[in-house]
User: Which sequence fits this backbone?
């Protein structure tokens, strides 16, 4: 919503300055978004001098002039006027300015191959006279004014732009703003001018609102004005229209726009002579179409509110008028409409048709239903003043009654909600000044809500009115109490926090990527889940919710590779989605690591990363998250996006919880890249079902002995299976098993490999003698051979 | 000079004359070993008279002590010399690179969420969460934003179905609804999380982070709201004084509603929070609308309280001087390294928020 101080003065008698007003508006909830000087359409035309009128290289009748506009450097302007000559003082129009004669906006353009920065003007182009033969020839008096505005610099006015919240349609009119200011002791709201217009002629156009289901229009007020002389608007009106950022069109159009912004009262003027027979306000039939004032054709659905005559649709009620019945500069007779349309229905229709207009913006927020007559009065008065003519009596069709809402209000509510004591007289005064009417009833107030405030429903709304006018700075701040009755984080949240920092401490940079991703990339990680499509994605490559964190991480890893970063370790902790219902999501910690192969770097090549690095990162993090190493086992079934031979899953020993995956990513997706995933909910669920109580520490001081074994096993056997078997042989004596060598090659059958392990044996009760050790060693060998088919290497 | 004395002298000379550790070892054997000089002399004792014995033994012990001392000092001298020579040869170019390591970092948004949680923890708020995918009811209707209301335009919503019933939450406020529906008042929670709006330009990203706050009890009023936010802002920016103003505004789910601005100024291209005459909008808040309480099965006649919503990314930008919102989500290696936080740098109450 835009306005100027002098416009505000029409409604408000105040001695406050513009800057005081701006500050006040902010503090009462009418946020000032911008304050900008008004664009005056003539201030851009500048007195200039042709320093040199050169011949245009490609056109005999054109000249390429060096023009002095009072700046350091001259400009090149192409000019066709015969009188363009060296030393001529004339008027220059810069790019961006609008030529008054034809409304054309100038741009930097090439004329016959030469760039022209603006234009030199004739008197007719500036609408000074009809002289169009040559460009303006100014006398020597102007010599000292080169660079100055030709029409003189007027005192610059500011446009104040407010960002009005959707609940305050009344402040989409200058009068509403004035009312709020007056309630804040910033002046007195002026009484509206009494109309002295005589309504002499007959309203002889039949108008009917059809009682359709969901009829958006409930009031249709109108009058006829005959014998007008539509014209260009006078200066004051033009300036107001320009201040709104609109273009002046003709007096009739400008006046209806002016009243809309003045009173938040949209109106529409029809060319009466173009209306066939009568006006019917009705719901549209499916497929009906019309050409709107924006020059576009619209085909309507069933049940959109249209204003029609016997020939068809004239316009979309409350949204936009039609071209067929639009007023023009030679329009003689008009029908003026001032109506009320239902906010929700207007909004639905406009949304369906993807149509926006100032009228729609207002009706969907709620126009004062009681302003139908005032709007007509105000508009008629201006039209008659500027265009002449005679006006008919007003015709108001109405199919619904509007009753002002009454609220039983306990003024103590204000203090209860605000927390500071507010005097009840002050409350009454504020509400009265805002247009509420009040009747005291015991300790309650019967408050009647003015018809222009569709946002007020109940007591709290009144509380807000009072406190926003009093000012939030009057509320006394209460220091918060430093008391905690509930833990800040729950069990899951603690693990989230810990997992995040644990993984980062392994050298991974935390990233945050979109929760959505490219369907194509995502499908490689989707497994058997369904794509979760976004109906209106921001772009086609962010069109599904992610089923995995990998797609985005890999995308950004590759972006960083292109930026020249070879070695990378990044991770994210966040949601992945399993379905489109609320709650169908899991929290995953996913890390990826890539090492840049640098053949020249012998220092680094000794320490290339492999699957065991990523496994280390994962296992270490799991341990830090409170999962002991003996609580899980490694399985080798992993999702298809991992390398089937170089990946594993970590599963709780009971087999119920997949805690994570790790491995090389599938080479079809990305080469030489390792990654892991931790499933946080699984981990937390496992932990809460397996709560461990830390027992007091005991350890043995008896001598411990190491025994090395090398077993020959099938090539596809797993080391874990060997150690699991050994562990179970004697849980008391076998303290540790360490795999220290895996060997394939010479001296070993080609389908076998050798796994060497060191077993630490120690008793908690005695020093083991040679005999004890021999026994356990024998038992280890025989059990392993028996249970796994391995053979001790001799 | 007796033979004995000559022998002693000879040993002394040999020890003094050598710089070689092997030689020293062989001298030691000659003197002190089982069959060495000293022991062989002691063996002579048996053949001596009592008087001679005494003198001889005393001389021998004296000589032994003397030789032992010379030997020890010589042995130390030579081993020191050897070690020094060895060390001299062991010079390594320690300017060669250390073993490779990587320093991980915590994203500034995560760090700021931890900082905020830490601050609100002090005054008794606990953390709640809700799903990223929401239904229309929790995101709008329950929050007093009716169907076909222009207030909905302020949220450019991503929808997951044609009927526009499931969506990506446009704010963290639905967590209010979930929290109240599953529990009983009083409520005192914060809810950080991802939020989504279909908007993308210099200052908007389709995903961003919000923090919801909710405090409902029997007598919670706007004074509490003001005090709570004042405390939070001061703690968060780690300043003693803060300039803050409440501007009336409109959110369907609060009444009265306000936006909160903080005062700042620019000094040497840096933003100084808490002073100056410029204002920056940082959050929206208000008293929870009775309709919202009713929708959440909380009796508005008994309970009232406040709610607020903070843009987390925005706060991170302000506190840590990050200019471009979009950079938060671009995962640029340099950016993550530069703006990220050490994982050990956990914000705590006793140590303070930032290092």
Assistant:
């Amino acid at each position: 919503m835009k306005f100027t101080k002098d416009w505000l003065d029409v409604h408000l008698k105040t001695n406050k300055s513009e800057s005081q007003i701006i500050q006040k508006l902010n503090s009462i909830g009418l946020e000032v978004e911008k304050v900008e000087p008004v664009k005056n359409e003539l201030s851009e035309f500048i007195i200039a001098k042709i320093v040199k009128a050169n011949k245009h290289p490609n056109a005999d009748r054109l000249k390429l002039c060096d023009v002095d506009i009072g700046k350091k450097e001259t400009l090149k302007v192409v000019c066709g006027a015969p009188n363009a000559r060296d030393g001529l003082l004339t008027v220059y129009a810069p790019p961006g300015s609008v030529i008054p004669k034809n409304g054309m906006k100038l741009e930097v353009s090439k004329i016959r191959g030469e760039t022209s920065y603006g234009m030199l003007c004739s008197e007719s182009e500036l609408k000074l006279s009809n002289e169009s033969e040559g460009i303006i020839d100014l006398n020597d008096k102007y010599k000292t004014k080169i660079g100055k505005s030709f029409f003189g610099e007027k005192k610059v006015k500011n446009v104040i732009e407010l960002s009005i919240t959707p609940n305050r349609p009344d402040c989409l009119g200058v009068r509403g703003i004035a009312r709020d200011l007056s309630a804040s002791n910033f002046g007195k709201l002026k009484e509206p001018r009494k109309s002295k217009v005589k309504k002499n002629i007959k309203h002889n156009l039949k108008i009917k609102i059809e009682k359709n289901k969901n009829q958006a229009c409930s009031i249709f007020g109108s009058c006829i004005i005959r014998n007008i002389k539509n014209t260009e608007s006078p200066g004051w009106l033009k300036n107001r229209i320009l201040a709104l950022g609109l273009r002046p069109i003709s007096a009739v159009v400008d006046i209806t726009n002016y009243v809309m912004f003045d009173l938040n009262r949209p109106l529409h003027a029809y060319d009466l002579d173009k209306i066939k027979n009568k006006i019917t306000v009705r719901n549209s039939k499916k497929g009906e179409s019309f050409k709107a004032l924006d020059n576009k054709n619209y085909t309507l659905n069933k049940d959109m509110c249209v204003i029609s005559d016997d020939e068809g649709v004239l316009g979309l009620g409350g949204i936009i008028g039609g071209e067929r019945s639009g007023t023009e500069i030679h329009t003689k007779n008009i029908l003026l409409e001032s109506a009320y349309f239902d906010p929700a229905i207007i909004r639905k229709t406009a949304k369906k048709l993807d149509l926006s207009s100032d009228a729609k913006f207002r009706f969907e927020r709620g126009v004062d239903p009681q302003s139908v007559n005032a709007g007509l009065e105000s508009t008629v008065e201006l039209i008659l003043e500027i265009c002449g003519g005679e006006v008919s009596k007003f015709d108001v069709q109405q199919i619904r009654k509007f009753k002002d809402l009454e609220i039983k209000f306990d003024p103590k509510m204000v203090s209860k909600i605000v927390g500071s004591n507010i005097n009840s007289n002050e409350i009454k005064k504020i509400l009265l000044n805002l247009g509420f009417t009040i009747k005291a009833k015991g300790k309650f107030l019967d408050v009647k809500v003015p018809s222009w405030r569709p946002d007020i429903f109940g007591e709290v709304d009144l509380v807000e009115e009072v406190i926003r006018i009093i000012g939030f700075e009057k509320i006394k701040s209460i220091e918060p109490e430093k008391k905690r009755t509930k833990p800040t984080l729950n069990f899951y949240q603690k693990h989230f926090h810990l997992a995040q920092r644990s993984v980062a401490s392994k050298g991974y940079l935390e990233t945050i990527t979109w929760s959505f991703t490219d369907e194509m990339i995502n499908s490689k990680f989707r497994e058997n889940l369904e794509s979760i499509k976004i109906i209106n994605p921001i772009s086609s490559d962010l069109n599904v919710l992610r089923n995995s964190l990998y797609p985005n991480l890999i995308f950004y890893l590759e972006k960083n590779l292109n930026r020249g970063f070879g070695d990378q370790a990044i991770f994210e902790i966040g949601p992945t989605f399993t379905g489109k219902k609320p709650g169908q999501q899991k929290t995953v910690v996913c890390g990826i690591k890539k090492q840049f192969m640098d053949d020249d770097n012998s220092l680094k090549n000794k320490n290339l990363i492999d699957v065991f690095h990523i496994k280390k990162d994962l296992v270490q993090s799991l341990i830090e998250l409170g999962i002991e190493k003996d609580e899980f086992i490694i399985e080798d079934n992993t999702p298809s996006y991992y390398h089937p031979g170089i990946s594993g899953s970590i599963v709780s020993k009971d087999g119920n919880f997949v805690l994570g995956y790790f491995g090389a990513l599938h080479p079809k997706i990305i080469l030489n890249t390792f990654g892991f995933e931790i499933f946080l909910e699984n981990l937390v669920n496992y932990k809460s079902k397996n709560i461990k109580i830390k027992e007091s520490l005991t350890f043995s001081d008896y001598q411990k002995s190491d025994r090395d074994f090398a077993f020959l096993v099938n090539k596809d056997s797993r080391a874990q299976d060997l150690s699991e078997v050994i562990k179970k042989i004697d849980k008391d004596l076998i303290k540790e098993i360490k795999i220290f060598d895996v060997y394939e090659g010479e001296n070993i059958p080609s389908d076998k490999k050798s796994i060497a392990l060191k077993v630490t044996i120690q008793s908690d009760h005695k020093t083991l003698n040679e005999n004890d050790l021999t026994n356990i060693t024998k038992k280890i060998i025989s059990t392993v051979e028996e249970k796994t088919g391995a053979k001790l290497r001799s | 000079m007796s033979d004995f004395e000559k022998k002693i002298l000879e040993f002394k000379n040999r020890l003094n004359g050598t710089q070689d550790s092997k030689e020293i070892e062989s001298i030691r054997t000659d003197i002190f070993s089982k069959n060495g000089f000293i022991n062989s002399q002691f063996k002579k004792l048996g053949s001596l008279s009592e008087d001679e014995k005494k003198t001889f033994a005393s001389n021998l012990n004296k000589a032994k002590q003397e030789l032992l001392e010379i030997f020890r000092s010589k042995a130390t001298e030579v081993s020191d010399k050897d070690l020094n020579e060895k060390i001299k040869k062991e010079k390594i170019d320690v300017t060669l690179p250390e073993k490779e390591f990587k320093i991980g970092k915590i994203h500034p948004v995560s760090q700021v969420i931890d900082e905020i949680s830490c601050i609100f923890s002090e005054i008794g708020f606990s953390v709640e969460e809700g799903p990223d995918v929401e239904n229309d009811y929790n995101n709008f209707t329950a929050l007093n934003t009716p169907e076909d209301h222009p207030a909905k335009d302020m949220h450019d919503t991503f929808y997951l179905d044609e009927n526009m019933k499931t969506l990506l939450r446009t704010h963290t406020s639905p967590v209010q609804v979930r929290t109240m529906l599953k529990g009983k008042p009083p409520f005192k929670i914060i809810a950080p999380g991802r939020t989504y709006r279909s908007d993308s330009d210099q200052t908007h990203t389709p995903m961003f982070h919000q923090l919801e706050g909710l405090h409902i009890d029997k007598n919670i009023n706007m004074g509490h709201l003001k005090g709570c936010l004042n405390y939070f802002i001061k703690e968060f920016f780690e300043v003693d004084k803060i300039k803050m103003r409440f501007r009336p505004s409109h959110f369907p789910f609060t009444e009265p509603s306000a936006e909160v601005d903080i005062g700042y100024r620019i000094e040497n291209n840096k933003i100084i929070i808490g002073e100056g005459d410029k204002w920056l909008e940082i959050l929206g808040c208000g008293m929870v609308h009775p309709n919202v309480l009713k929708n959440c099965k909380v009796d508005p006649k008994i309970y009232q309280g406040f709610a607020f919503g903070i843009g987390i990314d925005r706060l991170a930008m302000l506190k840590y001087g990050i200019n471009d919102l979009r950079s938060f989500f671009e995962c640029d290696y340099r950016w993550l390294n530069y703006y990220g936080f050490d994982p050990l740098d956990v914000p705590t109450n006793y140590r303070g928020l930032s290092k």
User: Anything to note?
Assistant: Chain B has a mean pLDDT of 90. The domain at 108-339 of chain B is CATH 3.30.930.10 (BirA Bifunctional Protein; domain 2). Chain B touches chain A through 90 residues (CB under 8 Å). Chain B has two domains: 3-89, 108-339.
